[in-house]
Amino acid sequence: MSTSENVDTKQFQIQQRRYIGNKNKLMPWIKSLIVENTEGNTFFDVFAGTGSVTNAVIDNFDHFIINDFLYSNEQIFHAFFGKEKIDYNTLNQYKDRFNNIDHLDKDDTYFSDNFGGRFFSKNDAIKIGEIREQIEQADDLNQRERAILITSLLYSADHIANTVGHYDAYRKRNDIADRFHFNMIDPINMVGKNVEIYREDANELVKSVNADVVFLDPPYNSRQYSRFYHVLENITKWDKPELHGVAMKPDAENMSNYSRKSAPEVFDNLIQNIHAKYIVVTYNNTYENAKSSSSRNKITHKQIIQTLNKVGKTKIFSQSYRFFNAGNSNLAKHEEFLFITEVHNG
User: Fold this and answer.
1) Which is nearest to 339 in space by CA: 286, 298, 280?
2) What is the domain class of 24-343 according to CATH?
3) pLDDT band at 112 (very low <50, low <70, confident <90, very high)
4) Quick count: other Cβ atoms within 10 Å of Cβ 322?
5) DSSP-based helix, strand, coil % in the chain, nearest 5
6) How far is Cα 75 from Cα 92, in angstroms, rounded to an integer?
7) Which distant-in-sequence residues (6+ apart) come within 8 Å of 74 by Cβ?
8) What's the CA gap between 166 and 187, in Å, rounded?
9) N or C: which end of the chain has fewer CB within 10 A?
10) pLDDT, average across residues 141-158
11) What is the rounded distance in angstroms from the CA atom of residue 261 to the CA atom of residue 193?
C-alpha cells in the first residue's frame, strides 16, 4: 500500500532490512494463523522490531499500537506508519541534494572518524554524516518528513554497510568500496487507520493499553539489540557520544531484561498484565539446539506454554524454518512456533 507514486521506483520497502529475528519470510504463515484464529479491530505489536508484522496485517485491523525500545525503530515507525501529510517534492529535492554530496559542509568529522574504514568506506561515512547533519539543521520539514529522511538514510546506509547483518562487528578489510547511494523509503498508506507509536518498556506499556490482538516477539537470547544496532541508533539520535572498543560502541544503555536470566519471570509479568482478547507469541527452539550461549534462548518452550495457560486457552502451531545466525553455529531441526492464546475474560 504505497502513497509514494512521486518517488522513484528504487525506494525501500519496510521489510528490506537486515535484522536479527526478522519475521518477514514467515509472515504469510503468521498472518494466516492470526486471521483464522483471532478477531477484533485493534492490533498491538509490543516488540515491533522492523514493523513487518504490523505491515503484513495492515488491511486486517483498523487501530494499531506499535512499540519498540530502539530509537531507530521508533523513527522508522513514524516514517512508514505516520499519518502527517508529506510533501514529496520537498523530499525529492533533499534526495537529489544528498546524492550530490562529495565533502563535509555542515557536519564535523565525528561519523567519518569513528565509522569510516570500519563499517563504511571513508567517503561513504563522510556522506552519511553530512546528510544526517543537514537533516538535523533543516527548518522546512514536519515531523514525519524528517523521520522519512532519517529512515531513508538508515536503510540506505544499512544496505551497503560492511557487516554480516548487524553492527556487533565489521568485516576486516582494507579496500571497502564506495557504494553509498541515498534512496527513499516507500511509506505505508494509513488512510482510514488509527496508529499509536511508542518507545517504552513493554512490561509497563501493556498495563495501560487495551487491544483485541496482542502480538509478542520478544528477544529470547542474550544478544542485546541496542548493542547490535548501535550504529543505526547513533545515526538516529545524533548526539555523538564517546565510543569504545573495536566495534566503536557507546556506553551501554537501553538493555533488555528479556536477554537476561530473569527473562522467564519478566515474560510471566508481561503476560499477567496484558489486556486483550488474544495473545499471539512467536518462539523458536534454539534453546535446545544452539551451540552458542549467546544464541540460546533464555525462556524454554515449556515456560512459554505454562505462562500463557495461566491466562487462557492456547493453540500451538509450528513449522520448520532456517534460523538466522551471524556465526558458524549449525542449528539443526529448527522450528518456529506460534502460540495463540484466547484470554479468559479477554
Assistant:
1) 280
2) alpha beta
3) very high
4) 9
5) 35, 15, 45
6) 19
7) 68, 197, 198, 199
8) 24
9) N
10) 98
11) 39
In sequence order, what are the residues at sequence separation of 6 or more whose Cβ sits closer than 8 angstroms to the Cβ of residue 32? none
* Separation of alpha carbons 86 and 74, rounded Å: 18
Give the mean pLDDT of 1-21.
69
171-214 pLDDT tens trace: 998 899 999 999 999 999 999 999 999 999 999 999 999 999 99
Spatial CA neighbour of 297 closest among 310, 311, 316, 281: 281
**Residue ranges of the domains in the chain?**
24-343
Cell of 203: 512490561
Phi/psi of residue 231, nearest 5 degrees: -65, -45
Q: Which three cell numbers stand for residue 52?
A: 513487518
Q: How far apart are CA 86 and CA 142, in angstroms?
A: 8
- Predicted TM-score (pTM) of the model is 0.90
Tens digits of residue pLDDT in 56-100: 999 999 999 999 999 999 999 999 999 999 999 999 999 999 999
CA distance 326 to 20: 9
